[in-house]
């Protein structure tokens, strides 16, 4: 792999450039891309032109840079969550029709929860999550659910780290987090009212793969004043349907 004078490969620089795009930030200027990737503007500009030629990036009518169709195509084709999303989407759509609020599907990615699908509706309660967006594991219902079933070593690592606070209800001490994880394992679901926003409550249940391991968290975000119990029952039925679909995928249509 060709390397620059500083020893960093061209590929590493290109990846830094691509990773400058955050959730919901689909269009950036060259100056902003250079700043976020810690590259010289001239270097960023040259790499952008090469990536545009390959279809990984594109220029819009204002000459700003956006993610290209080729990059989306390759990412979708190679996504390890593709079978999960295919199994979950029909169930999520039915659940969305019943609840009329945010429905989301999250997986563990490092020490974050990564949201791979999300359905919403006009007038739904405020929600900070986006598709391909991340949140700390301790702060959201989906993240807490996944952390509760994560390996002990990962749990202990998170317990030693500073816990970001979003509201006065956010879990913010190791002892509180340890207690919450035990409660999630005991109940089989995570319920976090007002932890990300004072007006919103997150409820998450596990989705299990064919081996019985927790592969994802299926979650809803509802107004705080809504009773959680009936939503938990519906959500658990939905997650069981997704788990069955993952275990027994539908045969391809001929």
Please describe the topology of this protein.
Elements (H helix, E strand, L loop, with lengths): L9 H9 L8 E2 L1 H8 L3 H14 L2 E3 L5 E3 L1 H10 L3 H18 L2 E8 L2 E8 L14 E3 L4 H8 L3 H9 L13 H14 L2 E4 L6 E9 L5 E10 L4 H20 L7
Antiparallel strand pairs: 1-3, 2-3, 4-5, 4-9, 5-6, 7-8, 8-9
Helix pairs in contact: 1-2, 2-3, 5-9, 6-8
3D structure, described in words:
- The protein is α+β, with helices and mostly antiparallel strands.
- The chain is built from nine helices and nine strands.
- Strands 6-5-4-9-8-7 form a six-stranded antiparallel beta sheet, sandwiched between helices. It has a three-stranded antiparallel beta sheet with strand order 1-3-2.
- A hairpin with a 6-residue loop joins β7 and β8 (200-208).
- The longest helix has 20 residues, at 228-247.
- 31% of the residues are buried.
- The model has no long low-confidence stretch (mean pLDDT 87).
For the structure shown, list the relevant keywords.
single chain, alpha+beta, six-stranded antiparallel β-sheet, three-stranded antiparallel β-sheet, 9 helices, 9 strands, globular
Question: Percent range for helical residues?
Answer: 40-55%
Q: Provide the residue-averaged pLDDT.
A: 87
Structural class: alpha+beta
| Cα-based radius of gyration, to the nearest Å | 20 Å
The low-confidence runs, each spanning 5 or more residues with pLDDT under 50, are none
């Amino acid at each position: 792999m060709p390397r620059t004078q500083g020893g960093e490969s061209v590929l590493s620089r290109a990846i830094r450039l691509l990773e400058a795009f955050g959730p919901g930030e689909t269009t950036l200027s060259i100056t902003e891309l250079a700043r976020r990737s810690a590259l010289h503007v001239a270097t960023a500009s040259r790499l952008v032109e090469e990536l545009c030629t390959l279809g990984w990036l594109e220029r819009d009518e204002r000459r700003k840079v956006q993610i290209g169709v080729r990059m989306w195509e390759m990412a979708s084709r190679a996504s390890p969550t593709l079978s999960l999303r295919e199994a979950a989407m029909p169930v999520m759509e039915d659940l969305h029709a019943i609840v009329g609020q945010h429905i989301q599907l999250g997986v563990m990615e490092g020490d974050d929860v990564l949201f791979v699908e999300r359905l919403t509706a006009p007038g739904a309660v405020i929600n900070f999550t986006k598709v391909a967006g991340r949140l700390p594991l301790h702060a959201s219902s989906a993240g807490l659910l996944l952390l509760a079933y994560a390996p002990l070593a990962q749990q202990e690592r998170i317990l030693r780290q500073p816990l970001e606070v979003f509201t006065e209800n956010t879990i913010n001490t190791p002892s509180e987090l340890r207690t919450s994880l035990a409660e999630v394992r005991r109940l089989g679901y995570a319920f976090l009212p007002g932890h990300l926003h004072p007006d919103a409550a997150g409820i998450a249940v596990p989705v299990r793969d064919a081996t019985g391991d927790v592969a994802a968290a299926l979650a809803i975000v509802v107004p705080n004043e809504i009773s959680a119990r009936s939503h938990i029952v519906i959500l658990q039925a939905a997650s069981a349907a997704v788990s069955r679909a993952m275990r027994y995928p539908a045969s391809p249509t001929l």
